Amino acid sequence: MRLILLGAPGAGKGTVAKLLTKVDGSVQISTGDILRGAVQAGTELGKKAEAFMKAGDLVPDDLIMGIMETRLQEPDCAKGFLLDGFPRTIPQAEALKTLLAKLGIELDVVANIEVPRQEILNRLTTRRTCVNPQCQAIFNVRSQPPKVDGVCDKCGSPIVQRDDETEEAISRRLDTYDEKTSPLIEFYRQEGLLLVVDAPTSEGVVNAITTRING
Ligand code: AMP
């Protein structure tokens, strides 16, 4: 399947993407994971992106499009892809449309995962992420704690609160979402691709998406 997962930070896009990869082998492409990996590895991309990310601001569109143009042409995308955290602005959505047309690829659906603001705030302030760039597993100190406090169940690395998950950065990310990303809902409605999902669990969201794709 070829789809875009839209939704505010903390809406569960990453969790849903991971569940969907198991359905048909489509790959999850998370621009946030790619950027965090680049920051930790200290690459040129990472150096350019770091300050924006720490502040909870978006990284410039041209950097993101550079990443995506390369990533979407890698062989593992042939089976399908789940875009998680991209596009985030109208210019990114326009550029993606042009890129997909050039590559001869059609999207199946754009799923907008709707979660109430208070629930988002609760989730983000209690979220913890594995520091290992190859893992980046997500835990929640309340609803999904690791077996050993502060240690990733999957790879044994430390799990931490992300720099952009302080209350100040979170509120900035949510404002940025409202201003720059939420207009994409209308954009994709007009493209005839939008599916609005407000299921309370990630499994429910996955069901709604697979039902729509399988007709
Ligand atoms: P995420 O893990 O998707 O919440 O992304 C973390 C941070 O990476 C965001 O707050 C942005 O600073 C940056 N980022 C991720 N994806 C994008 C994108 N498509 N456009 C611009 N910035 C992005």
Secondary-structure topology with pairs:
Elements: E1 2-6, H1 13-24, E2 27-30, H2 31-41, H3 44-55, H4 61-71, E3 81-84, H5 90-103, E4 109-113, H6 117-125, E5 127-130, E6 138-140, E7 159-160, H7 167-181, H8 183-190, E8 194-197, H9 202-213
Parallel strand pairs: 1-3, 1-4, 2-3, 4-8
Antiparallel strand pairs: 5-6, 5-7
Bound molecules: adenosine monophosphate.
Describe this structure in words.
With about 220 residues, the protein is an alpha/beta fold. It has a single domain, classed as P-loop containing nucleotide triphosphate hydrolases (Rossmann fold, 3-Layer(aba) Sandwich), CATH 3.40.50.300. It has 9 helices and 8 strands. The protein has helices at about 15-25, 30-40, 45-55, 60-70, 90-105, 115-125, 165-180, 185-190, 200-215; strands at about 1-5, 25-30, 80-85, 110-115, 125-130, 140, 160, 195. The chain has a 5-stranded parallel β-sheet with strand order 2-3-1-4-8, with helices on both faces. A 3-stranded antiparallel β-sheet has the order 6-5-7. Strand 5 and strand 6 form a beta hairpin. Helix 1 (about 15-25) packs across helix 9. The protein is globular and about 45 Å long. It starts with a strand and ends with a helix. It binds adenosine monophosphate. Adenosine monophosphate binds near residues 57 and 92. Adenosine monophosphate (AMP) binds near residues 35, 58 and 59.
